[in-house]
Structures are given as C-alpha cells and as structure tokens.
Specification:
This protein is α/β, with parallel strands linked by helices. 43% of the residues lie in helices and 22% in strands. It has six helices and five strands, in the order βαβααβαβααβ. It has a five-stranded parallel sheet, with helices on both faces. β1, α1 and β2 form a beta-alpha-beta unit. The chain is globular, with a radius of gyration of 15 Å.
Length: 153
C-alpha cells in the first residue's frame, strides 16, 4: 500500500455472501500494512425489488414494508458482521444506507466518496440465470470508477 490511505467500500445485504465479502474487505483494510490506516465504507441499499432481499425473507422480513422499525432491524442485521469485524481489527468504519437500485447506488457512492476499491459478493449464478435476473456484481464490475474485488460464494 506504499504508505497511502485507501478508501474501501463493501456492499452489504445481510446474506452469507455479503458476510464473506465483509471478511475480505476488513482484511484488506486492516492487514495491508502501510503508515496510514485505511477507511472502510459499508453500504446497504434499500431496493424495492423483492428478490434483492431473498436471504432476509427467509427470516420473515419483507422489502415491501414501510415500517421504519422493521427497516431498522433489516439494516442493523445487515451491518452486524461488518461492525463487529471492523471494531475487532480497529478499522475505521462508516456505514451508509441509501434507497435505489443496488448496482447504480453502489457505483454512484463509489464516485461520490472517491473510493479506491469496491468489494462485492457474487453468488456465482450461471450466465443463463444472470441474463434473466441481472447481476449486481456484474454491473458493478462493468461500470465502477475504481477496482472491484468480487468475492465468490
């Protein structure tokens, strides 16, 4: 890292794949040495498409709810792992919650915060399924203004 501070952003959604990406992002932020501490941004995008929260629905939560308390529980759960790991490794963390399309929002925030590296999870779905459903990680890789580290499930 040559003694410069890096800004790393990780996309979180509370899924197992997201948690795996968080582990990688925290490791990248804390374990690269250098004179200056890196900063980690964790972003949760409140999307309005149900399939974006498949892992959360298994726990009885619905993306269609407008109940602020329920959304707060979803967000708190999504940030649970990154908050814990960042605190353990003494990584400076800023959490962000935005509304919108996951890929578009992540790319916009990466530009806005001048991010050096994006870390995203990928379920590794095949090309056929991705053609019908789309892929947040694929869109981020194609349009990101910085490097992208894709963590496979």
């Amino acid at each position: 890292m040559l003694g410069i501070r890096r800004k790393i952003m990780v996309a979180v959604d509370g899924s197992a794949v997201s948690d795996k990406a968080v582990h990688e992002a925290v490791w990248l932020a804390c374990c690269q040495g250098g004179k200056f501490k890196n900063k980690l941004y964790a972003v949760f995008v409140k999307a309005d498409r149900i399939r974006d929260y498949d892992d959360l629905f298994a726990r009885g939560l619905s993306a269609r709810t407008e109940d602020p308390e329920r959304w707060q529980r979803i967000v708190d759960e999504a940030f649970l792992v990154v908050r814990k790991l960042a605190a353990e490794k003494e990584v400076q963390l800023e959490t962000l919650v935005v509304d919108g399309s996951p890929a578009v929002s992540i790319i916009k925030l990466a530009r806005e915060y001048d991010i050096d590296l994006l870390v995203v999870g990928s379920t590794g779905k095949g090309a056929m399924k991705r053609a019908f459903l789309g892929s947040v990680s694929a869109e981020v890789v194609e349009q990101a203004p910085c490097g992208v580290y894709v963590v496979r499930a």
